[in-house]
Design a protein that fits this description.
The protein contains 12 helices and 10 strands. By secondary structure, it is of the alpha/beta class. Helix 2 (about 75-90) runs parallel beside helix 3 (about 105-115), helix 5 crosses helix 6 (about 180-195) and helix 6 (about 180-195) packs across helix 7.
Length: about 350
Amino acid sequence: MDNKIQTVLGLITPEELGRTMTHEHLSMDYQKLFIAPPKQLKHFFENKITLENFGFIKQYPYSSNFNCILNDAETHAAVLYDVQLYKQFGGGTIVENSNHGLQRNVQFLKEVSQKTGVHIIAGTGHYVSFVQSSSALAVSQEDMHKLMVQEVTTGCVDQPDVKCGFIGEVGSGWPLHDFEIRAIKATGEVQAELGCPVSFHPGRHPEAPFEIIRLFQEAGGDVKKTVMSHLDRTLTKNEDLLEFSNLGTYCQFDLFGIECSLYQMHLTTDMPSDAQRIDKISSLIEAGKEDKILVAHDIHTKHRLIQFGGHGYSHILNTVLPQMLTKGISQEITDKITIENPKTWLSYKSRQ
């Protein structure tokens, strides 16, 4: 069998993929990562998103439980509208990174794909230890391995007629929790066994991406089929980014659309702007790494969806890619980043 890509509606060829956002969420729950707002602003976070409180929610997105729920009917309707626009503006595929710990909804992913014509790729594996139940934290590496193999080769435990097209986002904090180490090692074992693509969520420390790849490779994982997410908020120094890029993974800049420098999850780090993200990408291109760059928005809160006042899944298509051209990145390279690189990462011939 030639290399194929597994979507929630079945296998497709790499040529069918089209422009691809490689790290998004369509349905999940982020309430466990709630952060209390400044006391004087508390009352602005007690209701739904309005014109009155949107500015505060943009600054402190994780202080609104309402904002952190992406799996209710109201949000699902907004997501469907957004994905329809994504298709209209030239989008082909969305890689959905919700997995175990984030309350993924594979049935909804299937419905979105059927209604919009956008290819959706579901992920398996485990998110960070902080969101897991006590029983999940006790899961052995062997059982993690079995679960991922099942969901990639046979079907999801919660939607048996749908197979996962990649492992991710495999999440960890810093320092690494024992649960997260087991998850990374199990991912390496499964990747070596199946040859499938993988995506990692690193902790917010510049050593985190390096440590994840070390553990993954020791378990047999292939870095050439691996994405390291969130590098725009993790490797802020060019020398660290270039050093990491030499390991051979895909370097993903997936927080496009976040134009707020206050990074609520890590207050000592300034969140970069889209312009700064483009500059980081340019530095990798200048180093000859254009074959290993991916982009996305990592939409995981309501306020970034169009119907709640946000930019939606089409922001890169409508705003970022034209700006890349303005800043001297060629059409050939932007096509490589959004079409060719996703094709290479996501397509594989199963070894089972």
